[in-house]
Write a structure and sequence with these properties.
By secondary structure, the protein is an alpha+beta fold. About 25% of the residues lie in helices and about 50% in strands. It has an 8-stranded antiparallel barrel with strand order 1-3-4-5-6-7-8-9.
Length: about 120
């Protein structure tokens, strides 16, 4: 009986160890992302079209770090925040404001008021 308990305990510990190690992988969001375009009401535009339509120089990028923090740059202004990933969604938070993101076909999609900003990894 003691041998059976030991085998069961070893099996449980082995499964727990595999689960812990599989959670140590690097998230797909970790890295540098630059604005590539956007989508609103089913219409996709690239960065050049966004710049032209808004009349602004759109310099927007993010660096997501493994430690759950990120730095965002928008038109020369830098901000820092935190991020977390759950159920395939990334939630980025700056100054108490949260934005939901997701990785779609190797692009970071950031949903904002019915529109989506699309970033590509650099």
């Amino acid at each position: 009986m003691k041998q059976v308990k030991s085998m069961v305990l070893m099996s449980i510990l082995s499964v727990m160890m595999v689960l812990c190690l599989s959670g140590c992988g690097k998230s797909a969001v970790v890295g540098n992302w630059s604005l590539a375009g956007g989508e609103s009401e089913g219409v996709k535009v690239d960065t050049a079209a966004l710049k032209e339509s808004l009349g602004l120089e759109l310099d927007m990028s993010f660096e997501f770090k493994q430690d759950g923090t990120f730095t965002g740059v928008f038109m020369g202004e830098s901000s820092e925040g935190t991020w977390q990933e759950a159920e395939g969604k990334i939630t980025a938070t700056i100054d108490g404001e949260s934005i939901e993101c997701s990785i779609v076909e190797n692009q970071l999609h950031m949903d904002m008021d019915g529109s989506t900003l699309i970033f590509e990894k650099k």
